[in-house]
Amino acid sequence: MTVTTRAVAIGLGAALLQALMLIAFAWPAANIAPRDLPLVVTGPQAAIVAEQLNAHSPGAFEIDTVADANAARAALADRDAYGVIVTGGGAPQVLVASAASPAVAQQLGQIAAQLSGTPSAAVEDVVAADVDDPRGTGFGAMVLPLVMAGIAAGAVLTLLIPSAAARATGTVVFAVAAGLLSMVIVQGWLSLLPGTYLELAAVAGLACFAVTGFVTGLATVVGRAGIGIAALTMLLLGNPFSAATSAPELLPQPWGAIGQLLPPGAAASLFRSVAFFDGAGAVGPLVVLLVWSAVVVALFGIGIVRQRRVVDAPPATAPAVAMAD
What we know:
There is one protein chain. Helix 5 packs antiparallel against helix 8. Strand 3 and strand 4 form a beta hairpin. This protein folds into two domains: 37-125; 137-311, no CATH class. The chain is built from eleven helices and five strands; from the N terminus they run αβαβαββαβααααααα. The chain has 325 residues and is of the alpha/beta class.
């Protein structure tokens, strides 16, 4: 392949990558809509309201009916639902948890206006987003730097550190330091998240370990091509489908669900649970991050064993040359 041919191939490949990035980032944002969004309805007119919602927006909501308003509020606090409609005693009352998703809370506010017939219907925010980030824009912007820094750290460790064991050590050091430092900025300076600093730092560190470790670990096992494979997985799939700025149920399916199985999406959900909901709903995303971390450990283990076998292998001996009489 000539230099010119190689340059043309690289240019076309970069253009294709740009097209894929446009699709990955713009397509989900352009197709935000509720899809089986968990919603709770209670009160004497619960069945009627549920029927109206299903008729008006088929497939938009997954509606559950509970006994009373207390059970409905508990569903919000436990992250079993994004919103509640309480019927009886006049116009239906809509309860939301903007901490779970400001975008969903805004859409449920529009539903409240439709149900009450007034453009400024009252909506009670049971679990509110942080007062310094009411629209969740800062929270959404927090995920991409964590992913990008993790990819960059993994690439640098791969390119500069030949030892698999040393790469693993560097990954752990980065994850711990990045988790602690990022929450100093996010919580201490920007005040984007309430909650316990060390718990949030642990979430950030676990996410960083999963991203960086996957980049470095995969490259350790399959070679430098692993950097590109892991980076594209986290950047083209993990970040745009993380639902950090919306909710998994607002994204096109099955991509919203797939995004929650990748470290960026799991980290965003775990941050919300730890910061706003006292750990409710944390089990699922925590398991996802732990599974990714286990994969990382396994990749490093394979790399370390391979390198030790190479070191311990006896040197090849030159074949004996028969001496002519």
